[in-house]
Design a protein that fits this description.
single chain, about 190 residues, alpha/beta, 4-stranded parallel sheet, two-stranded parallel sheet, about 35% helix, about 15% strand, globular
Length: about 190
Amino acid sequence: MAKYLRRLGERVTVLTTSAYGRHSDDDGGDGVVRTADLRLLRARLRGRGRVQGVHGSDTYSPKRHPLSYFTVPDRMVLAWVPFAIRAALSLHRARRFDAVITTSPPESTHLIGRALAARGCAWVADLRNGWTFESWRRIPTRLQRQLDEWLERTLMQAADVVTCVTQPVAEDLGVRMDANPTLVPNAFDP
């Protein structure tokens, strides 16, 4: 997405975690900003310099992370999102973004979009997977599930545009939230 936006002449800043390491292009003025992430601290305590790739780590493991018993919508709400919101607001003050695009999972990423939208940015919430529709997350208590559903509804209705990667997720949001999401399938190329 950044590649196409840049080709259209847009200035693009990518805000991401430092937990998976750095890329050789990070310092080349390509607009990539990496923020702190508590998962990196955990990796360092285990003698590693970075978190394993998503599918090789416990992010998508059937084994539950201890924080998943307490956090909604996901543990990134504590591990990364506070650092990301702080960085996003600081970047916005310095550069005045026209728009922000947040992509999930993790679902807590959309809190960053909401924070920037509250300061005048247009906001596109992009869902790669369903949030509560066929969710890969296991939420232990009824109260947490209700909070998760409330967050989904509140954030998706606050976004200026919602995009979904699959038709079933788009249809679900349309029915449950009376939303009008746009379908942008994987491998879409304008």
